[in-house]
């Protein structure tokens, strides 16, 4: 996927001016935030679970190579195939080749952010293969030629009436006068349309929420059951996952599953949690004849041992997006690449370079709400600050900020001068404010006064008043 | 308590209070003295280094932090009328120095005795009632650093509940960022504007006559927005109310 992260500021401006988008985004806080809060409050051991989750992933990341090898052995023992993809291009090639070897015309797809990251749909289309997204949100987004704007709610940037219009446009074989007002009727229609596609598909591609090393199992969680149909009905199942999805045991997976649904949607557990170990065995009633796992690195192993290693604990629950006031303001697309919100602001520079995505870690007030809710206790603000440090070292920080900072630091190191100048500034702004007590515009402060007044200083500085006070005893 | 045993408090004024609203500093001194402290104000203090720290300039940050440590380590306590500057010293200064180094130890020691004003009054000095009077309906904005880095939530509410005549009306999303964020508000003015617009609406919808908070950065931001929109709501730092210093004009207002 081509990134537009460099244009973050103008993307954001556009998003703020898009009334449809703003209407859709206004549901994010009330929906996700309250539900998560309720679910967390209802589970006494929730905070302990977060510690456990963090520890499980930290342990895995310290021994990632061992667990990956163990996992690979188990998959092979169970009759599956493991493919290692160092880059997105490798993943595209591997998956296209598997599809071509089976003469596949269409593939159904379960929801997968890694597939977005690796550009699988575009690669398949280039090879003349039609990918069909089966998650409702993904299906809608694909229909519109867009990308998902949220980790778990790909179409959260859309309103119901927009989706209805798309359904009428694309499903033109259905009666024009059908009633599509209710969300439930949209779901029903999508199900019916998709049903025939499941059966026609040659291959099913899913992501994986977890890969279990002790059993060689891939796990997906969904609320629509589409993932099960995607991976069970076609003859071949390909699970595409990034390397940090590994957990040691079944027990560990269940700890993380308990955290995932609560943090994501406020559910105790997602409607469907499906474990896949190898292809269909003798006597199995269903399941694919072939089972492939594609393990994607795409820059992750380079994060290990750096100050960004903790980011690999992420289980893609979306809580940090939901709670982020910046995400709530601009939505996911403004971030300009696959991942958005706080997790995207940390991960994207790691994966596509800080030169490309340097805006993202800067577009934060460090309000800390993301870290407060992250089930894996990832210190997101701290890592955004690490990116800012790298940018500063590489001279990527905006010139205006750099020079402003230089002047500020210079004064801060010279207290007498600093106090004289701040005293003058206070008097200057107060004089400008006059009887009003505030100014509506001020040289060099356009970023502030464009949208708000600047309250006037009271006149004297505290230090000046304090000095007088000490003198007068 | 004899003069000798009074804890010596170094007041870290913060650059915003120093320049924009010295009355917050004076109210702070009054409250600290009421709580039984002896207050001193190192005159060479300037800024806590947040602008440099949050812009990724670690070298300058360390330099500024080193100066602050040297200037303030002599006191029993360091008190700051701001959650974000207090958190800078209390949480982030130690992170600036490698573990085991001399300055790390000094940063740790300073961190241990540094407090945001309201939490210091409640948690350390065990002050229950400041004896102030303010017969108004107020709402309180939790600043992000104070709330999440320093866990300040109950303390201001408890002290406000003892102010004679004061009625606290909670706004929706009191814990959501106002969009100030230091340099953020000038780097991303449009996003910042969206955030402060939502905050201003929540303040207004609370029905309160007065907005209080513990951080001047947030207050200047929200005041600037409310007043640009023509709102009549009065905006003050919580220290002014707790100290009974509400005769002076509120933020962005004059008595003329
Ligand atoms: S960073 Fe944390 S909160 Fe955000 S998606 Fe990942 S696990 Fe969830």
What does this structure look like?
The complex is a heterodimer of chains A (about 475) and B (about 260). Among the domains of chain A are: about 250 residues, NagB/RpiA/CoA transferase-like (Rossmann fold); about 60 residues, no CATH class. Helices cover about 50% and strands about 10% of the residues of chain A. Chain A has 23 helices and twelve strands. The mean pLDDT of chain A is about 95. Chain B is α/β, with parallel strands linked by helices and about 260 residues long. Chain B folds into two domains: about 120 residues, Rossmann fold (3-Layer(aba) Sandwich), CATH 3.40.50; about 110 residues, Rossmann fold (3-Layer(aba) Sandwich). In chain B, the strands form two sheets. In chain B, strands 2-1-3-4 form a four-stranded parallel β-sheet, sandwiched between helices. A four-stranded parallel β-sheet of chain B has the order 6-5-7-8, with helices on both faces. In chain B, helix 4 packs across helix 6 and helix 5 packs antiparallel against helix 6. The longest helix of chain B is centred in the C-terminal third of the chain and has 17 residues. The chains are: A alpha/beta (about 475), B alpha/beta (about 260). Bound molecules: iron/sulfur cluster (SF4).
Quick summary:
The complex is a heterodimer of chains A (473) and B (256). By secondary structure, chain A is of the alpha/beta class. Chain A has helices at residues 8-17, 19-25, 27-41, 46-62, 64-77, 88-101, 113-118, 120-126, 136-143, 160-170, 183-200, 226-232, 250-264, 319-323, 325-330, 341-352, 354-357, 369-373, 380-393, 399-412, 415-433, 446-449, 462-471; strands spanning 81-85, 106-109, 130-133, 203-206, 210-212, 217-222, 236-242, 246-247, 272-276, 290-296, 438-439, 454-455.
């Amino acid at each position: 996927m081509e990134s537009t992260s460099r244009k973050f500021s103008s993307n954001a401006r556009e998003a703020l001016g898009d009334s449809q988008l703003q209407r859709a985004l206004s549901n994010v806080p009330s929906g996700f935030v309250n539900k998560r809060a309720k679910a967390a409050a209802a589970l006494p051991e929730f905070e302990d679970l977060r510690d456990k989750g963090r520890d499980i992933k930290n342990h895995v990341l310290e021994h990632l190579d061992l667990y990956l090898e163990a996992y690979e052995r188990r998959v092979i023992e169970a009759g599956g195939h493991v493919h290692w993809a160092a880059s997105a291009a490798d993943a595209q090639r591997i998956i296209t080749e598997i599809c071509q070897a089976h003469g596949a015309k269409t593939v159904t797809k379960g929801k997968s952010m890694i597939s977005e990251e690796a550009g699988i749909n575009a690669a398949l289309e280039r090879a003349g293969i039609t990918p069909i997204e089966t998650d409702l949100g993904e299906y809608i987004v694909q229909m519109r030629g867009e990308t998902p704007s949220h980790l778990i709610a790909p179409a959260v940037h859309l309103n119901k009436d927009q989706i209805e219009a798309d359904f009428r446009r694309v499903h033109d074989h259905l009666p024009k006068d059908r009633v599509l007002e209710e969300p439930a009727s949209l779901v029903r229609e999508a199900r019916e349309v998709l049903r025939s596609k499941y059966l026609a598909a040659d291959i099913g591609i899913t992501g994986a929420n977890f890969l279990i090393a002790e059993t060689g199992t891939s796990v997906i969680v969904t609320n629509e059951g589409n993932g099960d149909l995607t991976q069970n009905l076609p003859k071949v199942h390909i699970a595409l996952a990034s390397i940090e999805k590994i957990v040691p045991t079944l027990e560990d997976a269940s700890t993380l599953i308990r955290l995932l649904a609560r943090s994501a949607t406020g559910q105790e557990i997602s409607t469907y949690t499906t474990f896949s170990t190898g292809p269909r065995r003798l006597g199995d009633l269903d399941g694919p004849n072939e089972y492939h796992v594609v393990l994607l690195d795409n820059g992750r192993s380079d994060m290990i041992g750096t100050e960004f290693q903790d980011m690999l604990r992420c289980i893609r629950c979306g809580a940090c997006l939901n709670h982020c006031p910046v995400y709530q303001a601009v939505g996911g697309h403004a971030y300009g690449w696959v991942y958005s919100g706080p997790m995207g602001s940390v991960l994207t520079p790691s994966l596509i370079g800080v030169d490309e995505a340097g805006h993202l870690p800067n577009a934060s007030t460090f309000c800390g709400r993301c870290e407060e809710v992250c089930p894996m206790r990832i210190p997101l603000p701290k890592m955004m600050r690490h990116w800012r440090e790298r940018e500063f070292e590489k001279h990527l920080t905006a010139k205006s900020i750099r020079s402003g900072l230089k002047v500020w630091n210079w004064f801060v190191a010279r207290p007498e001068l600093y106090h004289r100048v701040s005293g003058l500034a206070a008097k200057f702004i107060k004089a400008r404010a006059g009887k009003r007590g505030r100014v509506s515009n001020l040289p060099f402060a356009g970023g502030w006064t464009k949208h708000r007044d600047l309250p006037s200083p009271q006149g004297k500085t505290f230090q000046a008043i304090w000095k007088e006070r000490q003198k007068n005893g | 308590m004899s003069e000798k045993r009074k804890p010596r408090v170094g007041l870290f004024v913060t650059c915003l209070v120093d320049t924009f609203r010295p009355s917050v500093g004076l109210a702070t001194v009054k409250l600290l003295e009421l709580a039984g402290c002896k207050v001193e104000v190192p005159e060479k203090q300037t800024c806590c280094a947040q602008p440099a720290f949050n812009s990724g300039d670690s070298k300058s940050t360390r330099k500024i932090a080193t100066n602050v440590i040297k200037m303030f380590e002599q006191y029993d306590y360091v008190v700051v009328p701001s959650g974000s500057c207090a958190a800078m010293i209390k949480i982030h200064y130690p992170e600036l120095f490698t573990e085991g180094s001399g300055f790390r130890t000094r940063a740790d020691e300073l961190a241990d005795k540094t407090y945001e004003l309201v939490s210091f009054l409640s948690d350390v000095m065990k002050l229950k009632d400041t004896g102030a009077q303010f017969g108004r309906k107020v709402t309180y904005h939790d600043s992000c650093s104070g709330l999440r880095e320093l866990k300040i939530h109950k303390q201001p509410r408890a002290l406000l509940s003892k102010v004679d005549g004061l009625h606290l009306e909670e706004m929706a999303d009191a814990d959501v960022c106002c969009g100030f964020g230091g340099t953020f508000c000038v780097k991303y003015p449009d996003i910042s504007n969206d955030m402060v617009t939502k905050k201003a609406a929540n303040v207004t919808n609370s029905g309160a006559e007065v907005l209080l908070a513990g951080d001047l950065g947030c207050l200047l931001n929200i005041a600037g927005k409310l007043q640009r929109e023509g709102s009549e709501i009065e905006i003050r730092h919580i220290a002014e109310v707790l100290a009974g210093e509400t005769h002076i004009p509120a933020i962005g207002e004059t008595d003329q």
